Amino acid sequence: MSDKAVILLSGGLDSSTVLAVARSRGFDLHALSFSYGQKHDFELAAARRIAAAFGVREHRILTLPPDLFGDSSLVGGAAVPKDRDPLAHAGIPSTYVPARNTIFLSYALAWAEHLEAADLFIGVSAVDFSGYPDCRPEFVAAFEQLANAATRVGTELGHHITVHAPLLHLSKKETIELGMSLGVDYGLTHTCYDPAPDGAACGRCDACVLRRRGFEAAGVSDPTRYA
């Protein structure tokens, strides 16, 4: 197999760190982003900036129909939850996008087969997160098993497909420290779920809260422009 890897790149803090990890491991970088009607589509411009900064070999942005994801407050009319502690709330929040990581990884898997690549990277974490079921170790392990059972690479060719989730057990603080050690410029990234029309972060949604806490815990200045 080749040394190519497909990295899911949203343009946020986590996926940008994962891209840096993949580069540090010597992979030939192929990044994949998605436009799916998300309110925070400023992240796609951030993904382009990050891909360019890291010298990605190829960066693709795929467009998916927004109505595929139902009533998620990230794509629908419902308000994005704000002014709460995302780690203190039980249950799955309205910002959950149904099957998003499953769908994204499936596209990444298809592209990887075309590239003759056996390595996929995703920036999920089961530590500082909002309780999404597709950010857990069980999900990553299950998709990797599926990938090896459902592809020519994993069956006929006998190569093992690996789903790398290097942030899975890291806090936001640890993720930021890792990224800075690998040269990530977090000023290029976008995290906010509900940005202002000019792209300024709200500072109040779950994503902003977790990002702010991470920078504070790491003792690093947060380069985010808040409204």
Offer a quick outline of the entry.
By secondary structure, the protein is of the alpha/beta class.
Describe it for me?
With 227 residues, the chain is α/β, with parallel strands linked by helices. It has six helices and five strands, in the order βαβαβαβαβαα. Strands 3-2-1-4-5 form a five-stranded parallel β-sheet, with helices on both faces. Helix 1 crosses helix 5 and helix 5 crosses helix 6 (206-218). The longest helix is centred in the middle third of the chain and has 16 residues, at 100-115. The model has no long low-confidence stretch (mean pLDDT 95).
Keywords:
227 residues, alpha/beta, 5 strands, Rossmann fold, five-stranded parallel β-sheet, 6 helices
The radius of gyration is 17 Å
Q: If strands are numbered along the chain, what order do they take across the biggest sheet?
A: 3-2-1-4-5
The main sheet comes to: 5 strands, parallel
| Total helical segments | 6
Q: What amount of the residues lies in strands? A: 5-15%
SSE topology string: EHEHEHEHEHH
Q: Helix/strand-derived class?
A: alpha/beta
Termini separation:
47 Å
The total strand number stands at 5
**What is the mean predicted local confidence, pLDDT?**
95
CATH class: Alpha Beta
Per CATH, the architecture is 3-Layer(aba) Sandwich
Low-confidence segments, given as residue ranges, are none
Shape: globular
The CATH topology comes to Rossmann fold
- State the domain count: 1
Q: What is the CATH superfamily classification? A: HUPs
Helical content stands at: 25-40%
